[in-house]
Write a structure and sequence with these properties.
mainly alpha; 0% strand; MetI-like fold; 13 helices
Length: 297
């Protein structure tokens, strides 16, 4: 005979379950807010310091609200001869845009070859491509520099841009895994209609892998925008510096004396375009990462 559970007991169990779920949700949100706070506090301090007079930067106790608010710090930073913002910005855009185009184009073509084209040694070549990811960049730094110096490229953007037109192992792997999940019936039908591999790639595959392409493009653009080591090694003329290297030159332009309020203003202006880009593309960026993760699973 089936035992009947009293209604008050059922109501109590449901209430307890709701309480546990609510407590778990609140705890999760509290942890997220804590971690977010750890990341955002330095940025808030950056903004506050950029608006402070010089005598309010290092005080005890700390001054969180500047008085007066020095908006002129941005004008001084951006008009300083040591930080020619427009020239640095144009150099950075040149580097970031070309490197992003090279990475996306080359990785797409190579990934398509690994995913859809049959040729002898394909799996071996793909394994060798993936094996290059195991080499730390510091290991190949000196050989690359010697090679580019032999080419006569040192002092130009060629060492930073040209290699990206030959693909990136991680991006190739990501796109190849994405393409492998696309039904072969689509491409087989195109081949039957007389389409070439080039047509199949640009008319069928590229539109279907746009989320992955967007993720790769954004990652590369941000990496190029924030790249410090590459320009530091290969560029030797101040007129060719990108923003990040120009920011370092601005910091060291007055020796040991650093005007931290102007430095923070310049740093915020350097960071702002990337922050704006992320917010403008946040929806597509997150969608691309989610779809890429599902397709590559």
């Amino acid at each position: 005979m089936q035992q009947t559970i009293p209604q008050p007991a059922v109501a109590t169990a449901r209430r307890n379950a709701r309480i546990r779920r609510t407590a778990s949700t609140l705890l999760g949100h509290a942890l997220l807010l804590l971690v977010a706070g750890l990341f955002i506090i330095p940025f808030i301090w950056l903004v506050i310091t950029s608006l402070k007079p010089t005598n309010q930067i290092f005080t005890d106790p700390l001054i969180w609200i500047p008085s007066p608010i020095m908006w002129s710090n941005y004008t001084k930073a951006l008009t300083s001869p040591a930080f020619p913002f427009l020239r640095l910005l144009s150099n950075t855009l040149f580097y970031a845009v070309l490197s992003t185009i090279g990475t996306v184009l080359s990785s797409t073509v190579v990934a398509y070859a690994f995913a859809r084209m049959e040729f002898r040694g394909r799996n071996l070549i793909f394994a060798i491509t993936l094996a290059t990811m195991m080499l730390p960049g510091i290991v190949t730094l000196i050989p690359n520099y010697v090679l580019f110096r032999w080419f006569g490229w040192v002092g130009t953007y060629a060492p930073l841009i040209v290699p990206l037109f030959f693909g990136s192992a991680f991006n190739i792997f990501l796109l190849r895994q994405f393409m492998m999940t696309i039904p072969f019936d689509l491409t087989d039908a195109a081949y039957i209609d007389g389409a070439s591999d080039f047509t199949v790639l640009w008319r069928i595959m590229v539109p279907l892998v746009k989320p992955a392409l967007l993720v790769i493009g954004l990652f590369q653009f941000m990496a190029a925008w924030n790249d410090f080591q590459g320009p530091l090694i290969y560029l030797d003329k101040a007129a060719e510096y990108p923003l990040v290297l120009g920011l370092y030159a601005f910091q060291t332009s007055r020796g040991a004396t650093v005007e931290w309020n102007l430095m923070m203003a310049a740093a915020l202006v350097t960071t702002f375009p990337i922050i704006l880009l992320f917010f403008l593309t946040q929806r597509y960026f997150i969608e691309g990462i989610a779809l890429t993760g599902l397709k590559g699973a």
